[in-house]
Design goal:
This protein is an alpha+beta fold. Helices cover 55% and strands 11% of the residues.
């Protein structure tokens, strides 16, 4: 069984993810449960596989993606650091090599735009995967009249797609945005820091980052 399969079948990890998401729900945050972490894991793996990294590195990216938000169980503030400590304990218990633990923990500890830096390929892939998961289905609030700006922006995104071009020189985040719900400037107001971090992450992988909203390139 692969490391990723072991993590996904671990009931304690399922509990941590579920309860972390429940805490964020109380605080009014968008969905950070299994849909999010699975999508992030798959996208991070896609990025490294497309860029020609080894199967082993792709497996580490899957693990980092799946575990990256467990720190929300402790507190939303500095959740990347607390999540890294939690992930260390889990992975050490699994008995995997120290170098692999270090890579995963380092990626998790550096995925947030407040303090994160794409210090290695797995961290860079995790950043791009996490920050590109903007979609309507993450919004929990069912009353549009009470949406805050985060709800409006996420709800306005009808489709998001992260793709690397055939020459492996450009990674594009393409968004289809319903501007009747939120303006493009709203997106930049809350996500500019994330997009700047994505650009740095792309550069770490030898890529240029492009943000395209409604077929218009904005970065």
């Amino acid at each position: 069984m692969s490391l990723y399969e072991r993590l996904k079948n671990d009931e304690s990890i399922k509990t941590y993810i579920k309860m972390a998401d429940e805490s964020l729900k109380v605080l009014g945050y968008t969905e950070h449960s299994f849909a999010h972490v699975t999508r992030v894991a798959d996208t991070a793996e896609y990025i490294l596989r497309t860029m020609g990294y080894s199967e082993h590195q792709c497996e580490l990216a899957l693990a980092a993606g799946y575990l990256h938000d467990i720190g929300n169980l402790v507190n939303r503030s500095e959740h990347s650091q607390s999540g890294a400590v939690m992930a260390f304990r889990i992975l050490d218990r699994y008995g995997i090599p120290a170098e692999d633990i270090a890579t995963i923990v380092c990626a998790i500890g550096n995925h947030d735009e407040g303090t994160g830096v794409p210090v290695n390929a797995v961290a860079a892939a995790l950043i791009l995967a996490d920050k590109s998961d903007v979609r309507r289905s993450r919004v929990r609030n069912i009353d549009p009249s009470t949406f805050d700006i985060h709800d409006r922006v996420n709800y306005s995104v009808k489709k998001s797609e992260l793709k690397i071009n055939g020459d492996r020189t450009i990674v594009k985040l393409k968004l289809s945005v319903d501007t009747s719900n939120s303006s493009i400037m709203d997106y930049f107001e809350i996500f500019l820091g994330r997009m700047i971090l994505c650009r740095k992450a792309a550069e770490t992988l030898g890529l240029s980052f492009k943000l395209i909203i409604n077929e218009q390139q904005l970065m």
